[in-house]
Amino acid sequence: MYRCVFPDGQSGWMVTRYEDAVKAFKEARLIKDRSMIAGISEHQSVFTQNMLFSDPPDHKRLRGLVQKSFTPRLVEEMRGRIQEITDELLKELKGREHIHLIDEFAFPLPIIVICEILGVPAEDRDKFRLWSTSLIEGRNGEYANDMQQHMKDFIHYLKFMFEKLRDTPGSDLISQLIVSEEDGDTLTEGELYGVVTLLIIAGHETTVNLIGNTVLALLEHPEQLELLRNQPELIHSAIEESLRYNGPVEFSTSRWAREDFDFRGTRFKKGEMIIVALSSTNRDSMEFDHPNEFDITKEKSPHLAFGKGIHMCLGAPLARLEGEIAIRSLLKHFPLMKLDVDRNDLEWRPGMIVRGVKEIP
Ligand code: HEM
């Protein structure tokens, strides 16, 4: 565990060891909603009124409500449609010598999928991409100066959409969330914004990097690429190894010490911020043999790329399915793909949360 000062000036702790991280994810005295700590008053933004920033019992209610509609069955039912979208995107690229893998494939695929699940019209997808990138990259990002305006536009759009779906609900996820809200006053208006925003951002910003980072790892390890080409059935373990070796989410979200307490030899003070360095825990030599090697034949990988405990990623089955279909199809259509620039010239995205390159030519 390391004491650190985070970019916003907050002091706290960074958990870097695997075992410490597992314990931290399950520690009830590390909470997500800082305003619950006595003496701290904090305004909750519209974007944080969701399960990721809540503690029990609110967490269970919010997660349960989304889980009711966002089921493993719904994800499995999307399999055919994800393959169709993948094939359509790859057909456009077929025959070209140069492609921009992120912009032309890794980004559109998860966006189209999550927009279809949520019920966002196809013509509005680009707006969602802009707002989502603006929000996640924040003050260091490309759209830093326009961020406030983007947030206003985003909320305005959602407000209009919620009103429309209230009058004429469809079979999409947002309509189902709205209906649940009206049935048993389970989702407040603010929570509806919070939950939908979380799903949009999680659906846009993570899987794109799973696809990109997996391609990069395979290109950097030609023998593993060759192995996967010859044994496509290894796709499942290849995705798990990619999640461990080069996970799309670098750090967990923040947790706060509810009170003073000793945690595995370190004294946490009430109100201190704790984050888990997921990428570090996934290469902990006390947990993984040869952690810096990329080996797609590993049988099982207890990586923490999706977190652990009550906040463990709700979208993991969807992300895995998208990753598997995307990589398998890409290798089928472009078996001889190569990086078109020097590896060191690739530019990484700013911000502390997502880990991925801006483009892979
Ligand atoms: C939570 C990673 C894709 C929805 C999380 C957390 C991680 C994570 C690490 C926990 C954060 C923490 O405890 O601080 C990832 C990765 C993905 C991915 C690596 C892709 C490879 C998705 C997708 C969706 C999604 C596609 C939905 C469309 C969520 C939600 C939570 C969450 C709703 C909050 C769960 C809760 O607090 O109970 N994700 N995610 N994620 N993720 Fe994902």
TrEMBL record:
This is Cytochrome P450. InterPro entries: Cyt_P450, Cyt_P450_B, Cyt_P450_CS, Cyt_P450_sf. Gene3D superfamilies: Cytochrome P450 (1.10.630.10). SUPFAM superfamilies: Cytochrome P450. It comes from the Bacteria. Belongs to the cytochrome P450 family. Keywords: Heme, Iron, Metal-binding, Monooxygenase, Oxidoreductase.
